[in-house]
Amino acid sequence: MPRLANIRLHPIKALDPVPVNEARIGPNGGLELDRVWALYSADGRWVNAKRTAAMHLIRASYAPDISSVTLTVPGDRRKIPAMSFAFPGDAESAAEWFSMYFEQAIQVRYTREGFPDDGLAPGPTIVSTASLQAVCEWFPGMTLDEARRRFRTTLEIDATEVRPGPGTRLDITLVALLLLLGSILFVYLVYTVTSRL
Known about the structure:
4-stranded mixed sheet, 3 helices, 34% strand
């Protein structure tokens, strides 16, 4: 039977996630505190890992209630100091830290609505554990946690393991219906497994 296996928020767009046991729906349909800080360069462009490889070296760790974030750069030869900031209120001080790290002026912008990758569909992103495992098989050496960090989804659906017998073909269908009522997200899953010889 399918189950919600993980909820991961990414409070700072393009940085580490924080696992949570529950999350509230935010004002635009995404999860509260997901991608609410975003980094911008002086020319107004997003600073992200797709364009800026140095982003991969930054580690972000959060207080259990996500009221603060500590930024570090393990192994950085410049010895950038680890610093903690109130989250999400201390964006200005965090911008100074990011500016020092990237050696250019960086703005940290905050919005309660978050900065989704897709402005037309800003809701939670969903992936199955099986899909992440398949990606790991395509890229030898990639771990499941690395795949999770790479795809950066907020919700992960897992299903109980099905072990078909020899000569059995399985047809698996997973249909998800997301319904937003006020600030509550209802996820209805229909999961069917049909075996054929």
